[in-house]
Amino acid sequence: MVTAQQETQDAVTDSDSYALRIEDLRVYYGTPRGTVKAVDGVSFNLKQGERFALVGESGSGKSTLAMAIMRLTREPGHIAGGHIYLNGRDLVEMNDREIRSIRLREMALVPQGAMNSLNPVMRVGDQIIDGIADHVLPGESPPNRGELQERVYDLLVRVGLDPSVARLHPHELSGGMKQRVAMAIAISLNPNIIVADEPTSALDVVVQRQIMQTLGRLQEGLDAAVLLVGHDMGLVAQFADTIGVMYAGKLVEVGSVPDVFKDPKHPYTQLLIESLPSFDISRQFVGIPGMQPALLNLPPGCSFNPRCPSVHERCFADVPDFLDIGIGRGVACHLYDEEVA
Amino acid sequence: MQDAATTDSAGGPPASSGAMPTGTFYQERIEPIFLYGRRNPSLIVGLGMLGGLLLFTIIGLLTYPDLDAYVSGGAPVKDKRIPPSWCTWCEDIVEREVDERPTFFQYPMGTDTQSRDLYATNLRGIPLTLGTGLIAGLLSVGIGTVTAFIAAYYRGLPDVLIRLLTDVGISIPGLLVLIIIRIQLGTELVWWQLGAGLAAVGWVFSSRTIRAQVLVLREQPYVEIARQSGMSGLAIIFREMMPNLIPYITASFVASVAGSILASIGLEALGLGDFSSPSLGMTIYWVIQFGAITLGMWWWWLFPLIAIVVIFVSLFLISAGLDEWSNPRLRRQI
Amino acid sequence: MSEFMRLDHVSRMFGGGAFSSKPPIVAVDDVSLTIDEDEPKITTIAGESGSGKTTLARLLMGTINPTLGTVYYRGNDFTNLSRRQSWDFKQEVQSIYQDPFGSYNPFYKVDHVLETPINRFKLATSRQAKMAMIEEALAMVGLQPGDTLGRFPHQLSGGQRQRIMVARALLIKPRLILADEPVSMVDASLRATILDSIRRLNREIGISVIYITHDLTTALQISDNILVMYRGSVVESGAVERVILEPKHPYSQLLIESIPQPDPDNKWGDEPPTPRFEDFDTMFGCKFADRCPHAMEVCNDDQPPAYHLEAHRQAQCYLYQDEASVMENPDLSSIFQDRRADLNV
Question: pLDDT band at A8, cuts 50/70/90?
């Protein structure tokens, strides 16, 4: 995957060839105590065929961002600004009907806890068919029953299930199998963006690995871009090409996975990587001191300043800009202000 | 909430959004009740309606002079079928001399064909009917809770027997059983006996609801932690589980009171009540017996009907208002 | 060696029965294990969901009875304890659960979980002694009484709640603690402190700990021994660093290889096969045979015995039938004995 990533990076110069372009996206929640800026001015790009992982602690805004990209933000949240360009069109400007025609066809979601997103009283095959039939474009003739059956079997085989699973109800399946069904629904109309929100959170390691490898196989088959949302740095290292680190609603670092793991720039990323569990017995447990601040009550300047080991005066005064520090590499930290200037 | 990030930095990482500074007893226990009331106006409206009805009754009972005039013969026979005294436009059905006309406050709800004072009758009837419901509700919930705990906490044979009893009890119409019992007994049931009878068939509903909740609660890790802390079975039931069951017990109680009042009125209207009692249900019975509607004596049936409607609507609003409290899924997190 | 809890050829089935159309699920399949009091250890039970790890732990905790075999508490049959013995057992075995919120009764302040055991087990004679005990226990897990006491559970963070549960165990000073995935619902940055305080319970107070987890990295960090379970059987067990760093059973190998290593240069191999979608418990032979890359004829016929591979390790796999002998003592703890002494040599 590393080589594929390099190739695309070199080849892509024209911004139109990005599969997904997020520009200064803001998602705010209105609460009785004030506005919560869950996603606050995030920009990044996804190339065709790229695997982009968005990581961060719970509450960092990563899932909110993923939902906003799917235009599934729920009340009291709303997109307060910015643009989401999918194949050149801005999703933020679209109405609900236009969005529906794009979901599943151009971008699909493998939801968090997908095993609970299936309808318990409907056979698996019918649920996949429903997804396809629901997204028939106006003026397009719906596929007939036989064709649909054929497609369901094909999809189930592609996600690594036996076609006979189509006749079963969700409660007859294991967690991993349900997750595979959710993936089958997601790829049913060959989208070119797959958003996977913690797709393996409640699964055992072996099943998790199988699911992630299946997702990788499907992504390669479709040449789709994947936006993986998660907190497990191990999964990111195993799966993704590019990593984006979120902290308190902001993107603090972006880079290719090998670069970021070898040479993390932002102090938060450094701590995140240092605190990873490993099989090295001699190492003591390390955690990141402190906790993410409440989004309603962010410290002035850089949000990470209360926990940052390399904090200095500027960090309390100014919010750091997102700096471009190399090909596909960026960081939002005052430590690199001079380097760039 | 404002200083969440600063309150507990000394002992380790400060809690994030979940942490709140501790407040006074008022902030922790009393203020939430008001906040709850503001979010659930139906509870307030329901309690207000019920309170209004009780206030009306109590003031009436304390101030009306001829309270027992409803007893047959208590009022002059010539005073029968008088429309409410304030109703100056009402046509009097019985011809009367001018000086025999009642004064303005004499019969505020008129009289019936037996020359009973209906205002006094209703003042006596409302507490009787509410009392029947209250007795039935208390007994139902009491029996229901005890059986639910025996069944759900101890399981085994007691559970099988109690479940069998409740399943049978729910599937056969309780009112029918009561009618048969009443006919077999042959005696008239006074208000509290009627309440007890209703509880005897109504407890199964409470038992079933509460049993389901106890089954959920006993699987909670904190119940196992309490057991490992050396608490006995009874202590676990009363100290760990009961406080968390109060919302369900309250909801079950309100439903039970409403159901019992409805059933008691039904039984009395069928003529199976206490004939010497002026309860709302018995008033309805006499209304039917004497054909008050065809006689045009609207005041006879309208006022008890209003009281019954107020009771039901207020109980319904109260139980709807308590729904958020007893149903964690509906409970809004603020 | 003085035994605290002993499982003697214990099996536990669920379901089945005369009125069920499905065969019973064998959650624990013939396990013998002793929890030793003189040499308190942290023992990890690892395995995927449905492997029987929680059932095995619950058998050790006495919360469920075995279908076959016997559970002994200090040498006495567990189903036949005197009143006195049952009361002692209650105090000597404690749990720390996965969900630090569910362990608290939402009706009470957090003080309740600390005060109840002191009152019930009469651990303190006066109010002052009680407060001193609570404060000492909180200090040991790194909490300030002022920050935690007098609050309701929802007013504390998950990490604080879980550390109070550890403090509670500290107060009671049991002989055995069951920690069932104690950090899986806690933010990663807080896991270290909780695991560290659990380790101190073992090292400083001498409490045996059963650590149930699917997270083998933390298992390696805190435990001495490990049991790897697969569909009710302990397929491999032994010294934790031997089993995790050099797994011998093909299932342990798959399990450990599948842990996503945070190292982009060390990626997963090919996608492993999924289990056959059938009723496994009616099968004969090794339960892993259908997914095993090394499966042989014999694997489908008979369940493999435990082979004693080295001083502190066994594996139930025919791959080792030539190089190792079958364990004479079926009790798995026989391979855990004198572990620390050996490590120091």
Answer: very low
- CB-closest option in A289, A292, A306 to B16: A292
Chain B residues close to C87, C-beta within 8 Å: 230
pLDDT, position C285: 84
**Residue A205 sits at the chain C interface (C-beta within 8 Å):** yes
Residues of chain A with C-beta less than 8 angstroms from the C-beta of B2: 297
> Which residues of chain B have a CB within 8 Å of the CB of A292?
16
Residues with Cβ within 8 Å of A87's Cβ and at least 6 positions away in sequence, in order, are A19, A106, A192
Nearest to B225 among C63, C103, C163 (CB): C103
User: Do you find a cis peptide bond into A76, omega within 30 degrees of 0?
Assistant: yes
B14: nearest CB among A32, A291, A295: A291
Task: Report d(CA C8, CA B75) in Å as an integer.
Answer: 89
What average pLDDT does chain C have? Answer: 86
Report the amino acid identity of residue A78.
Answer: H
C245 contacts chain A (CB < 8 A) = yes
Q: How far apart are CA B220 and CA A20, in angstroms?
A: 45
A121 φ, ψ to 5°?
-105, 15
Report which of A55, A35, A32, A34 is spatially closest to residue A44, judged by C-alpha positions: A55
Check CB contact under 8 Å for C259 and A285: no
pLDDT tens digit sequence for B37-76: 777 788 889 999 999 999 999 998 888 766 665 554 455 6
Q: Do C221 and A277 touch (CB under 8 A)?
A: yes
- Residue A315, CA distances (Å) to B202, B220, C271 in order: 68, 46, 46
Identify whether the C-beta of residue B159 lies closer than 8 Å to the C-beta of residue B151.
Answer: yes
Closest residue in chain A to residue C49, using alpha carbons only: A204
Buried b (16+ CB within 10 A) or exposed e, C77-112: ebeebeeeeeeebbbbbbbbbbbbbbbbbebbbbbb
Instruction: Looking at the complex, report in whole angstroms how far the Cα of residue A227 sits from the nearest Cα belonging to chain B.
Output: 27
Half-sphere exposure of C268 (CA within 13 A, CB side): 27
At C23 the pLDDT is 73
Query: A258 and C265: CB-CB below 8 Å?
Result: yes
- Which residue do the tokens 């003697």 mark? C8
Q: Two tokens at A202?
A: 């409640």
Q: Residue A284 burial by CB count (10 A; 0-12/13-18/19+): exposed, middle or buried? A: exposed
Q: In whole angstroms, what is the distance from residue C3 CA to residue C175 CA?
A: 11
CB B148 within 8 A of CB B140: no
Contact yes or no for A301/A314 (Cβ under 8 A): yes
pLDDT (tens, 9 = 90+) of chain B, 334 residues, equals 333 333 333 333 333 333 344 456 676 667 777 777 777 788 889 999 999 999 999 998 888 766 665 554 455 656 677 777 777 777 766 666 655 666 666 777 877 877 788 888 888 889 999 999 999 999 999 999 999 988 887 778 888 999 999 999 889 888 888 888 888 888 888 888 889 989 998 899 999 989 998 888 888 889 989 989 999 888 998 889 988 888 888 888 999 999 999 999 998 888 888 888 888 998 899 888 888 888 878 888 899 999 999 999 999 998 888 877 766 544 444 3
Taking an 8 Å cut-off on Cβ atoms, the answer to whether A291 and B4 are in contact is: no
Percentage of the residues of chain C whose pLDDT score is greater than 70: 92
Could you tell me the CA-to-CA distances from B146 to A52, B134, B210, B244, B313 in Å, in that order? 58, 18, 9, 15, 29
CA angle centred on B287, ends B282 and B292, rounded to 5°? 165
- How many residues comprise chain B? 334
- The backbone torsions φ and ψ at residue A27, rounded to the nearest 5 degrees and listed phi first, read -125, 120
A290 and B2: CB-CB below 8 Å? no
Cα separations in angstroms, A341 against A323, A327, A337, B256: 10, 17, 6, 76
Distance CA C31, CA C51 (A): 13
